[in-house]
Each structure stands twice: as C-alpha cells, then as structure tokens.
C-alpha cells in the first residue's frame, strides 16, 4: 500500500525509523524530518535515536524544529554540546539548514521534500481510505474530511457529545455564537480524526418568558411572508418592536406572562405558534451552518427539557447539606466552599431556571447514550463564552455533588469575546449577513485586478470560499481565551496568517 511512499522516502535518504516505535513517516510526513534530525544527533553525539527524536520540538518559534541540549545531560556545557551538533550538521534532502543559539540548535526543513512527501501521503492515504471504505468515521458526517490522511484511531471506542453554537431564537446570533460555532466545529473534526464517535448538539435558547412577549409582538407586527423569507431577522424585528412598546405599556408584559404560562401548561395553540417559529429558525440556521460546512446531529434546546426531568434533577440535591431555603421559598445552593458563590436553583413559584435546565439536560443526554450505546458518554464538551464560566462551573459542581455518574466527563471549553463585530450597515449581527458581507467584500477585492478577475472560472464561488475561510481563520488565529477585535481588513487580507493566504 505505502510502497509508493516508501520508495519516495528512499529517494530522499534512509531513515532510522525502526529505532523509534512512535515515529510513522509513512503516515506522518513530519516524522521523516524529525527522524533525519535524530539520525544526525545520534551520529554527532551518540545519543540513542529514540531519545533524540523525542527532543526534536515542532513548537519552535524561530525555525521549523528546535532542539534544547540541556535535556540530554551530556558531559560538558550544553552550549558546547549544541555547538558540536551544529558543526556536525550536514544539509540533507530533509533538513535544509541549521543555526546555533546558546544551548539550542534550530532546523529548517527542505520545502520541496516537504511538499512532495505531504502531497504523496495525502493522495496515497485518501485513495486507500476510499477504496476500502474505511476512512475513520468520516463517512458518517457530511462535513468532515474524506481522506484518511491526518486520521488515527487513538480514540477508537470512545463516544462524546459536543455542544456548540447554541443561539437564542428571536435574538441576534452574536459574535460569541459565531466563535462557539467555529471552535466547536473545529474540535468535533479533531476528535473525529482521532477516532472518536462524535455527536454535535445545538442547545437553542428557545424557551422562556421572552417567547410570551414574542407572541404578543407577533399579533402586533408579525408578517407571514417576511417570516417565511427570513425568519431569524423578522422574529428579531418583531421582538425589538414589542420590547419598545412594552416599555411604554407594561400591560403587554402581563399579556406575555399569561401567554408563556399557557405554553408551560401545554396549551396547544400557544405551542403551535412557538413551534412554527422554532422550526423555521432551525431551517434557516441549517442553511447558514451549511455554508460554513458545519452540521448538527441534534437540535436540542431549553424547550426540550421536561418539567419532570428538572424536578428529578433537583430532587437529587434537595436534601444535600449545601441546600438552603430563601425566605420567599426559593431553593439556593451554597457553593462558597468551592469558591463558586451561592445560586438559586429553583424559584419560589417553582418555575425552572437556566441552570436547572442544564442540570436536567446533562442527565438526559447521559441516559440517552446509555440507552443507545449501553454506556454514558466518555466526554461531553460545552463550547460556551467565558462570560458563563461561573454558570458552567456551578452546574458541573452541582451534578458532581448530586452523585451524577457522568460528572467527571464534563468539560467546559471557553473563549474570549469578539469585539466590534458588526455588518457595515447595522449593529445587530446576523450570521448570514456576516458571511454575505465576507463574500461581497472579497469579490470587490478580487475585482481590483480586472484582468485576473476575468481569468477566474467561478469568481463568486471563489469569493465565497475565501470569505468563509477569512472569517474562520481570523477567529482561530487569536488565543482562545483572549478577546479579539473583529477586523474586516485582517479577515480578508491575503497577507500574513489569514484564511485567504492559507487558501
Ligand atoms: N448548556 C448551555 N448552557 N449552553 C450554552 C447556551 C448559550 C445560550 N443560549 C446563550 O446564548 O447564552
């Protein structure tokens, strides 16, 4: 199978791969380059190849690889050892040059060899994966990488849920949702490429008093045609209108309360309207996610958490030593011992809260996996903005204190804020508008060179792909936990570490 790569590698020079069990140059081209460095260190300093291989770091800031010599604990000063390794270095088909700096030697790869080997490996492994039909788990999901290149089976047999994006119906899809979407999709692909079974869940903000208000607003300014055309935008407009109106006329809030009560009590006509809003919004979201090559396996949401499941989740902590009753009858849990403050988990009137829904939903997902696969998930990741750090830490802790078996499998992946993201025309952000704007702006940049523009076969498609990549890559470039300033210029520039440059 890999004969082709084997003989290609041989034309560049033999590698001591048998001495390093974890190196796999026939699947991972980078290993071939690290092995060459290891081979050279072995002959210069007589270090075992395996140890030398481990020391070749790919996290170098100044070159492709760096080796820190103090770690070998060889006789003599590390600087002198490094210098000897540097002096003995011979440029090869793999490593083009080396430089010496204190106790370090830095190495740069031969780009031609890197390109040849990488492309050959991709071709080889993908054709192999396809004709045996065994590209790990890629077949299952629409959006994932078809080739077996970059896949391994280290996570085989492990199952996870990853919850991400999770926008709120009738409110804008803000930059935080975009970031959650991008990071969540990235992590899903990564786990899948490592052999995990991954379910992508979207937990919509689709329940609560605001849906009562939305229904009141719908009576005032709802428009069927507009709803069909762009449900997310129209529901938002209706919501903004009714909120403003309710400022002046508080009786609208009372109406909203009554309406939502009807929904909670299962009044079918109230639910029918809500269901229509939800279904149309999901359909529109799916379209937009598809533009980003992202799909979800499950659209859950706050509405999908039943009253019974909430009360049984609360029953599990009711008698705990951490629980307190407020004067008005609300139930609180005191997590100050864990530096997680106190929080209300049940209102005085018994109605559910964001946190109690999360408690019940986590258990529901666990039980669902048990039913389907005979065991709960091995991991469940929540990709949610750092503003909700406390919330997530609280509900994880409550689940843990209540003896929930899955508590250890929960993980919060947080992220900093995206500042200043807006379309050029307005302030409210809609994901589809951002993507359209990325495409349009990209196309106008392309048009600046008319002769070249004419040569492109499908310029709109190209602008679309470049725009999308720009948005995604700008997001992934910054450190995850830091805030960053959204910039159209950086997003669509073809210089530096940008999506356009990458494409
Ligand atoms: N399980 C969760 N609480 N996930 C996060 C949901 C995010 C929420 N819909 C928001 O927009 O703020």
UniProtKB/TrEMBL annotation:
Listed InterPro entries: aa-tRNA-synth_I_CS (IPR001412), Arg-tRNA-ligase (IPR001278), Arg-tRNA-synth_N_sf (IPR036695), ArgRS_core (IPR035684), Rossmann-like_a/b/a_fold (IPR014729)
One GO term describing the cellular component: mitochondrion
CDD domains xref list: ArgRS_core
Keywords for the protein's UniProt record, in alphabetical order: Aminoacyl-tRNA synthetase, ATP-binding, Ligase, Nucleotide-binding, Protein biosynthesis
GO molecular function, one term: arginine-tRNA ligase activity
Any one GO BP annotation for this protein: mitochondrial translation
Keyword check for Transferase: no
Stretches the record annotates as Disordered: 128-154
Positions of the Arginyl-tRNA synthetase catalytic core domain: 151-488
Compositionally biased tracts (Low complexity): 135-148
SUPFAM superfamilies referenced in this protein's UniProt entry, alphabetically: Arginyl-tRNA synthetase (ArgRS), N-terminal 'additional' domain (SSF55190), Nucleotidylyl transferase (SSF52374)
Superkingdom of source: Eukaryota
Family that this chain belongs to: Belongs to the class-I aminoacyl-tRNA synthetase family.
Name of the molecule in the record: Arginyl-tRNA synthetase
Species lineage: Eukaryota, Fungi, Dikarya, Basidiomycota, Ustilaginomycotina
